[in-house]
Amino acid sequence: MPYSVAHTQNTRTKIVETARQLFNQHGFHQVTIDMVMQQAGLTRGGFYNHFKNKEALFNEAVASFLMGRGAEWRGNAGIDVTNLKPDMAQKMVDAYLSDDHLDDTEGQCPMIALPSDVARADDTTRESFETLLSAMVWLLETASPQDNPDRRQDALAAAALCVGGMVLARALPISKLATDIRHAAHKAATDTLSARS
Questions:
Q1: What global pTM score does this model have?
Q2: Which is nearest to 130 in space by CA: 156, 154, 106?
Q3: Rounded (5°) CA angle 87-88-89
Q4: Which long-range contacts (CB under 8 A, 24 or more apart) does 80-88 make?
Q5: DSSP assigned state of 127
Q6: By three-state DSSP, how is residue 6 classified?
């Protein structure tokens, strides 16, 4: 008797989420299909019922973040994408550059955890990564005052500060420099978004 559509979808979601966490922790090349399936409590053979190869899984792991773990993360941060006022942009900056986000290696945004791996990935995965960045820029831009003629540029700059600050902080050992970088990125992003408020 074949599995139900719901069972098949739940299994696929479990594989993707397990892979996303493992990719975040170890990077694309250090994670094997066997590792993913074992961690998910499934057999290797079942993998190919859902994905053509590891690259296809990597793409879906990156793409899944926005409406999966990312939506949960935004909710926990008090970010309401249906009510984007200026305080939502600040909440995004605060949460993105927070200690909690830095420490959450399994749950981190792929823009922090996987930029080098994505840069070497196929176009589909790079497009999924671009979608994440575009969503962040959209949130920051939409939450900016409507009368700011430079709000798109400000949103791009703030997003670059948030992501870049976290990438550097994650790459460094726990140190004063890593903390100072995040704090400087936070101040600069905040100043950028509030300059014309």
A1: 0.88
A2: 156
A3: 90
A4: 81/139, 84/139, 84/142, 84/143, 85/143, 86/143, 86/144, 86/145, 86/193, 86/194, 86/197, 87/143, 88/139, 88/143
A5: H
A6: helix
Nearest 5°: CA angle at 122, between 121 and 127?
A: 100
pLDDT (tens digit, 0 to 9) for every residue of the chain, 197 residues total?
466 778 788 999 999 999 999 999 999 999 999 999 999 999 888 899 999 999 999 999 999 999 999 999 999 999 988 887 878 999 999 999 999 999 998 889 999 999 999 999 999 999 999 999 999 999 999 988 788 889 999 999 999 999 999 999 999 998 999 999 999 999 999 999 986 54
